[in-house]
Amino acid sequence: MLAQKTRYAIRAMQHLADRHGQGPIQLTEIAERQNIPAKFLTVILSELSRAGLIDSQRGKDGGYWLALAPQEISYGDLVRLVRGSVALVPCASRNAHETCKNCVPEAECRTRALMLQVRDATAELLDGIRLSDPIELAPPASHEAEPS
After folding, report:
1. Quick check: 17 and 74 in contact, CB under 8 A?
2. Residues whose CB falls within 8 Å of the CB of residue 91, separated by 6 or more in sequence, listed in order
3. In this structure, what are the phi and psi dihedrals at residue 109, rounded to the nearest 5 degrees?
4. Superkingdom of this entry's organism (predicted)?
5. How far is CA 57 from the centre of its chain?
């Protein structure tokens, strides 16, 4: 699953993409509209700023805005930046590969082989969708227990 930090970063960037070209957007607006704790949002926006995805201006009329056009930023970019990888397990990561502890050798691991396929499909999907792309909303999940 995506960590809360990654989900917050995506929602903040979606908010800024929706308001692209409208000038600086105040942190309080993003926090309130996206239901993100302001202190945590400050840390996330600082990280996104250091990565060159957003710019900011201090002061009464200050705020945050995208440093790049929404069509230049993919969801894959965001996930990799905040999470480090789109892979579900460290042995399937391209950029942050680590051999799993307490596992069989990688050359013999069918779980790793499966997770490499999942990583590639996930990366293809996330890299193909930009902040500028419309995303159709899905109905809320049923609260009935589903088979796992």
Report:
1. no
2. 97, 98, 99, 100, 103, 106, 109, 112, 115
3. -95, 110
4. Bacteria
5. 23
Q: Would you list the domain boundaries of the chain?
A: 4-66, 85-128
The continuous run of DSSP H or E covering 11 comes out as helix 4-18
Task: Show pLDDT as tens, one digit a residue, over the chain (148 residues).
Answer: 889 999 999 999 999 999 999 999 999 999 999 999 999 999 999 999 999 999 999 988 899 999 999 999 999 999 999 998 999 999 998 888 899 888 899 999 999 999 999 999 999 999 999 999 999 999 998 866 555 5
Spatial separation of the C-alpha atoms in residues 29 and 85, rounded to whole Å: 29
- Tokens 């990688």 belong to 106
Model-level pTM?
0.88
**How many whole angstroms separate alpha carbon 11 and alpha carbon 70?**
13
